[in-house]
Design a protein that fits this description.
alpha/beta, Rossmann fold, 36% helix, NAD(P)H-dependent oxidoreductase, oxidoreductase activity, NAD(P)H-dep_reductase
Length: 175
């Protein structure tokens, strides 16, 4: 059975990422084994490896644990906020820690924020493609329409369909 990892990208104290993640988790179809990785709990320091990630020679135990977690997945879902039309620094840091582990990994991005996190998802796509991930489209929840600022999800049928399509593509492309 393919292994799906879901990463909660927000690390803010007053975040709603875990609520959006629960909406995503409730829709995961049969056929995946799921593991949740919360970047707030993982608490990677700002990139502190002395070598290049492409070398794969990690000096720190936190990097080796992060590497092992990503190597143990066949598909990935990023639940990520949009901050100032971009994606958050903790997500960029987590991506930059690794390199070879990302190659060929199918990833879907579920964004949330104003305008459905469209700016952040667009910016993130460039980074994910640079590390050779296989990006599939995912939904974006929009404050005032499908998401409250307190994290209550009232997704539309379009969002639900986009989520189902994302999972179908991830399942088909799982490594």
């Amino acid at each position: 059975m393919p292994r799906l990892s879901l990463i909660i990208a927000s690390t803010r104290p007053q975040r709603i990422g875990h609520q959006v993640a629960q909406w995503v988790l409730d829709a995961v179809p049969a056929g995946f084994t799921v593991t949740v990785h919360d970047l707030r709990e993982i608490a990677l320091p700002f990139l502190d490896e002395p070598g290049q990630p492409a070398d794969g020679n990690y000096a720190h135990e936190h990097t080796r644990r992060w590497s092992a977690a990503i190597q143990a997945t066949d598909a990935l879902v990023l639940v990520m906020p949009e901050y100032n039309r971009g994606y958050n620094a903790s997500l960029k840091n987590a991506i930059d820690y690794l390199y070879a582990e990302w190659e060929g990994l199918p990833v879907g991005c579920v964004g949330y924020g104003w305008h459905g996190a469209s700016y952040a998802k667009s910016a993130l796509r460039q980074t994910l493609e640079r590390v050779k991930m296989t990006v599939v489209d995912g939904p974006g929840l929009e404050f005032g329409k499908t998401l409250t600022q307190e994290g209550e999800v009232s997704a539309s049928a379009t969002d639900d369909a986009a989520l189902a399509t994302m999972f179908a593509e991830l399942l088909a492309k799982a490594r």
